[in-house]
Amino acid sequence: MEQSTWPDLPPDVLHDISSRLRDAVDFLRFSAVCRPWRDSSKPIHSFPPWLLPTPEEDSVPLRFRCLFSKSSYRALLPIAESGRRIWLSTHDATTIRYLTVEHRRPSLHDPLTGAVTRLPLLPHKCCVDGRWEENLHGAVYADGTTLLYGVSTVFEDTKTIASFTAVLLQPGDAEWTFVETIFENTNRSREYCATYRNGRILVTIESSVWQISTQRGVDNMGIPLQRLPTMCGNYLEQYSYLLESRGELLWATIHVRTYYNDSRRFSMWVCALDGDKRQWVRKDGYSLADRALFLGSPNSFAIDASVLVGHGGSVYFVYTNSKAAPYKQYGVFRYNLVNDEVKFIERLPQGWNCEKCTWLIPETIMAPVQEINRSSLEARGVKRQEITCPTHVIHVERYYEPCFKVLVYNLPLTVKSSQLRLLFGKHGKVFSTEVICDKKTKRSRYIGHVTMSTSHAHLEDALDALSGLVLEGCNLHINMVKEGRPQQQRKKLPSFIGAAAQLHIGPFSWLWL
């Protein structure tokens, strides 16, 4: 029987393989190998989200982290205007936007293409004291409506008075609609969220929501909805997020309790707004088992649970209160709404000093198959010379995690370097191993070192993964020293076809040849 080659695999086998690739980059690699593999793979509806920091100051490059494939990426951004960045939530989880304000003139930026949209001047009365921008939040909605809002609190006697100020710009408007409302007797200044829905601004304060009309000439008094009973006792911190999922407005709240030994305990509940009864209704964990929630600042959204097999009813969030929490609790968590259990996933990558992180869903668009040869490359060069107008090209590259020299202590007397390579190869890519031996006896001096890289984005996570290793009955003691980044050689694709595939992150693409 003639042995079949890889390109000749049965279509049903290729389709089964491609359907199991849930990481965007793995899917592109598979599709770019050859024409039969490419034709068998259909674009997946959605991929697991990527995490990225949203710093207020200029940050180059923009970094991404895929928790599910343990991969990191980065993109050099176009040169943008200087100034503080105000990141906005978007209706589409595949896009990100931020705002800059200079002399009351706001500009909306797409950080992935460098595109800038100039918006009308902000009303003078919302910028009188110059402090509104310091606590500014906002969102861009599907119809093009832009909402900007800020909350300032004042303490008078035994009560807290909160001033809510917002401006709304709808498609076709030449100026912003200004809204201002006072809320009294609020207890916590960090529990404010706002969104624009059905022609009204909804503001959540503690466990109630207020509806604010945006029509000119209408008294903008808040209308309180029925309060939700207190579900958590004493807690140190509370974080609230608003998102829409399947036509419902959801309010997710994370409570953090502290104990005498500085440990933290998380609890969470998700409510849906019942417009008819004008109240929040807590959703049962099982009612959310068909989706997964991703909470971030500014973007929060829900995806179908089929994208994350086995993690329906989960909520992914970033906890970055490094001043209040132990170091090990500074990173990404997953909360199970069905059994009310929380699991620490991983620390934020080293160098992510921003306290705010958001989520982004990468998209894939398959480029037409084309033969790549000398003549096609020369024709492409001529075409590039004909282009005179500036274009925005974003290059996304794999960002390999640091290479470490692992110092290993308490080795067995008769251990060999090949044994170290085999043991540590289960936890990453090993570049070299060496056992320090006695010159006379040729036996180990209980010490060795391994140069390797791991999929972990933080040194402490890599160290935790290697702790507790045992070799021939000896408990190994590990110490890691950062070496730099490993040299990566670009692998050549098979020569029988030159295929191209594009990974779209928002409006920019990553081209694989």
Automatic annotation (TrEMBL):
Pfam families: Beta-prop_KIB1-4, F-box-like, RRM_1. InterPro entries: F-box-like_dom_sf, F-box_dom, KIB1-4_b-propeller, Nucleotide-bd_a/b_plait_sf, RBD_domain_sf, RRM_dom. Coiled coil: none annotated. GO terms for molecular function: RNA binding. Signal peptide: none annotated. PANTHER family: F-BOX/KELCH-REPEAT PROTEIN-RELATED, OS09G0565350 PROTEIN. This is RRM domain-containing protein. It comes from Triticum aestivum (Wheat).
